């Protein structure tokens, strides 16, 4: 049996832009449904074009979901941090560089004290990412 962790990101009117950006970084298949596609779902007409659910399927083990939080839902919806790890250095380095475009690198992707390569960034949408490349040359 396979277990997957699928991060689900929340935005306020930026989900389509964010998910399109992630699609440009990770590739894969992006599917987007709007509130309007689902009959409105109780949101104002001005929000019918916002994203009710989106799914970026990168591979069998990498999926990212996202949606816009309707204006009638109060509160802060922080996205936490997403960790990408493994031993495919070229892929992980490419993802780190792509996500860093227009964002802030908090910890440059470099050799870490535990022997792996590690980097930390906040992308241009405010989502925090950690990248860990197992051992080797990173």
UniProtKB/TrEMBL annotation:
Domain Glyoxalase/fosfomycin resistance/dioxygenase residues, every copy: 8-131
Name of the protein in question: VOC family protein
Gene source species: Nocardioides agri
């Amino acid at each position: 049996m396979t277990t997957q962790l699928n991060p689900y990101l929340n935005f306020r009117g930026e989900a389509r832009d964010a998910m399109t950006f992630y699609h440009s970084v990770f590739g894969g298949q992006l599917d987007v449904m709007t509130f309007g596609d689902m009959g409105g779902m109780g949101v104002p007409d001005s929000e019918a074009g916002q994203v009710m659910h989106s799914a970026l399927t990168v591979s069998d083990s990498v999926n990212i979901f996202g949606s816009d939080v309707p204006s009638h839902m109060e509160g802060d919806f922080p996205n936490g941090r997403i960790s990408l790890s493994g031993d495919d250095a070229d892929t992980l380095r490419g993802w780190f560089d792509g996500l860093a475009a227009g964002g802030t690198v908090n910890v440059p992707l470099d050799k870490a004290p535990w022997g792996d390569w590690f980097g930390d960034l906040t992308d241009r949408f405010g989502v925090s990412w950690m990248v860990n490349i197992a051992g080797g040359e990173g």
